[in-house]
């Protein structure tokens, strides 16, 4: 019994194929593993059928001959051929591997597309910005040290200098006008208080009733005219401040952009000149071509910004003359009418420039600008 058990375990050949044999598995294993005859071993428990071929591996598996007994077959088990299903899967796998191997460029393109993510784009922008900043900083330092050359448009530079000077002067005029408006407001408040005091004394001093009444009326009239003049001055301040802080400042922004474009243009021009002075070989020629391309790009940008600034300055000059002509006329007529005591002329000046005050009766009259 022990010998039969040993031989039964030895006869169990692990077949891991699920393919179909040229001969049925029962025939093969009945011939090789289950020999018939008088001297045959009882290996019915080890005989395998087609249902025992379920395995994850596929292919041709050969079993070695069992050497424990001379009665067992000495020839190897017959080869197991793959089934049609296995063959089709193997064919698909081989086709896929061949396709992948035959198209390496496609895989490289996909990898390149994957690398083009926002992080890589930002990194490239930072690299370009760093190079541009370095070149511009070097150009600025060389200009300040007197070593580098710069492109100058004499006519345009003169207009820009005049604009800077005018802006400073307009700002100074605005500060003085604001000081005048504050002082005039204090005078108006003092005149109101003085007029109220004279009116009170005229009631309490019968013998000086008329004298106090005259002075009270005069102070009240002066305070009223002062409010009218204050409205004109505030309108003048608001209009000039709009001209300086919006119209002129908008042109100043374009001038700053033009100056940056000029520095970039000069930086790349200097870089190209240095490369042209060096040797021309296979290593330097691509650098020269790239520098020439960048120089052309920044040259076009510089010329475009220069034209934009020239047009802006022209329109600004026309607008400035129109605005200041109106506001200076208003300021002059209001001041002259106030100090001449011409109340009618002062009110006509406000109507001419569409300036309205609050209705009488308010504690603190103000004015409303209407363009």
Structure description:
The protein has a two-stranded antiparallel ribbon. The protein is built from 9 helices and 2 strands. Helix 7 packs parallel to helix 9 and helix 8 (284-340) packs antiparallel against helix 9 (343-352). The radius of gyration is 51 Å and the shape is rod-shaped. With 371 residues, it is an all-alpha fold.
Quick overview:
This protein is mostly helical and 371 residues long.
Oligomer: single chain
Helix content: over 70%
Please report which band the strand proportion falls in: under 5%, 5-15%, 15-25%, 25-35%, 35-45% or over 45%: under 5%
State the distance separating the first and last CA atoms.
122 Å
Mean pLDDT: 74
Counted beta strands: 2
Overall 3D shape = rod-shaped
The sequence of SSEs as H and E is HHHHHHHHHEE
The major beta sheet can be summarized as:
2 strands, antiparallel
Strand order of the largest sheet: 1-2
Describe the protein's topology:
Layout: H1 2-10, H2 25-32, H3 84-102, H4 104-115, H5 118-144, H6 154-204, H7 209-277, H8 284-340, H9 343-352, E1 355-357, E2 367-369
Antiparallel strand pairs: 1-2
Helix pairs in contact: 5-7, 6-7, 7-8, 7-9, 8-9
Features of the shown structure:
single chain, 371 residues, mainly alpha, two-stranded antiparallel sheet, 9 helices, 2 strands, disordered N terminus
